Known about the structure:
Elements: H1 2-34, H2 58-65, H3 67-99, H4 105-113, H5 120-140, H6 158-186, H7 190-198, H8 203-214, H9 216-231, H10 235-240, H11 250-260, H12 266-293
Helix pairs in contact: 2-12, 3-6, 3-9, 4-6, 6-9, 9-12, 11-12
Amino acid sequence: xxxxxxxxxxxxxxxxxxxxxxxxxxxxxxxxxxxxxxxxxxxxxxxxxxxxxxxxxxxxxxxxxxxxxxxxxxxxxxxxxxxxxxxxxxxxxxxxxxxxxxxxxxxxxxxxxxxxxxxxxxxxxxxxxxxxxxxxxxxxxxxxxxxxxxxxxxxxxxxxxxxxxxxxxxxxxxxxxxxxxxxxxxxxxxxxxxxxxxxxxxxxxxxxxxxxxxxxxxxxxxxxxxxxxxxxxxxxxxxxxxxxxxxxxxxxxxxxxxxxxxxxxxxxxxxxxxxxxxxxxxxxxxxxxxxxxxxxxx
Length: 298
């Protein structure tokens, strides 16, 4: 079998390599080049070819001078902090609860995981109804059962919408993170807990000094996924608020830049996309490096 894989490895991976080059690598390189030009989508401003419309770093400077871009950048950072903490804590709590269930654990895992199968747009429209009808009209609005101002009209306020988006994403993705955490919990040797009990440790001490250190590989993966997905959030942002009331996030800002400018400034949009890519790459690589150092080897 090993000889078979050695013989056929390159022919088998060649289609994937070709697809990666054509669909991802070449468009990415062209996008970086176009970010330094006056690209308008169907033509280059100032010349017939891209090198004739070269503007240097002008598009990048304009991006950081763009009020909407900076606002969406700050809003995305704020949301990411809230979402990463909330999703991972909820996923870990679900994992601890499910891991303690002896009967029907598979059914519980399935129920918690199912929301992850919903598409972003469908999810956003469903939760739009929940926040506008159930939260506002039935439960927490002025005429609701339990009037709570913060939980009413959540999609009509920038700060409230941030937490509404976080609530929706916790509901969708916490079950997925739970599966990863459950796998990590099952890989922790029971001897460590037995030794800790002999030493007279409490549940909290066992959790903090045994579970968390041994769970760091799973934490690294989950934090990486939630961090990257939070920055890249688009469909849910469009469906839930459509960027109204100052709730536009970075991915939507890049998408809408061509509509905000006349004629459509694809060069500026592409410069924002490159900044977006570099920012996500730096932050996620730094996070993986930091959490990797905390991992414990048996």
